[in-house]
Amino acid sequence: MEKTVAIELKGITKTFGEVVANKNVDLDVKRGEILSILGENGSGKTTLMNMIAGIYFPDEGQIFIDGKEVVIKSPKDAFAHNIGMIHQHFKLVDVLSAADNIILGEKAPLFSVKAHSAALKAEMQRTLDIEYKRNESAESAATDKNTVSRTKFKYAMKIACLPFVKLGKKIKFNHLAKNRGEKLQKIADGYG
């Protein structure tokens, strides 16, 4: 079974002023293939990899991922295509642990108290509207005040708790981030 091309470079050229780092480079990397790029110092190996990883942008040429042309302008773009780079010269934050350096840049999921509050208020109004209509259809003169009070109280408590929900999500994310070392160690052990 022939392996499919995961990454394809066509005519990649990168210059720094008058210095040509890469000129018209073509490269195919097949899925599951381990590839080594050899060359003397200054031959453009790292520059080529930096363009795949989104650190540099090619002056000319095309990059294809799984047969589709892509534009990789940043490491975030590369990461979106499942491309990461382990640099020859480590780019780490010395005061952080190895696990912290690996997850550096991950953020806790956004949680907007204002947006959740608005959604709960809208949900409360829909619930009350249903209750009013139910009572009208039963030809009741007025909606049961206890039902309305209980409904408003229930939603008021949910809204009042939103800052604590946000804090809880942040604490949970921090706990997961701090305990990611075990998961990272299992991955490292798996690759030897």
Question: What does it look like?
Answer:
With 192 residues, the protein is α+β, with helices and mostly antiparallel strands. It has helices at 45-52, 75-80, 98-103, 113-137, 145-178, 180-191; strands spanning 5-16, 19-30, 60-65, 68-70. It has a 4-stranded antiparallel beta sheet with strand order 2-1-3-4, with helices on one face. The longest helix is centred in the C-terminal third of the chain and has 34 residues, at 145-178.
TL;DR?
This protein is α+β, with helices and mostly antiparallel strands and 192 residues long. 47% of the residues lie in helices and 17% in strands.
Keywords, separated by commas or semicolons:
6 helices; 4-stranded antiparallel β-sheet; 192 residues; alpha+beta
Radius of gyration: 28 Å
**Helix and strand composition category:** alpha+beta
The count of β-strands is 4
> Any low-confidence stretches, pLDDT <50, length ≥5?
none
Estimate the global geometry from the Cα principal axes.
elongated
In round numbers, the mean pLDDT is: 83
The helix-strand sequence is EEHEEHHHHH
Q: Residue share in helices?
A: 40-55%
Helix tally equals 6
Tell me the fraction of residues in β-strands, as a range: 15-25%
Instruction: Report, as a whole number of angstroms, the end-to-end distance.
Output: 27 Å
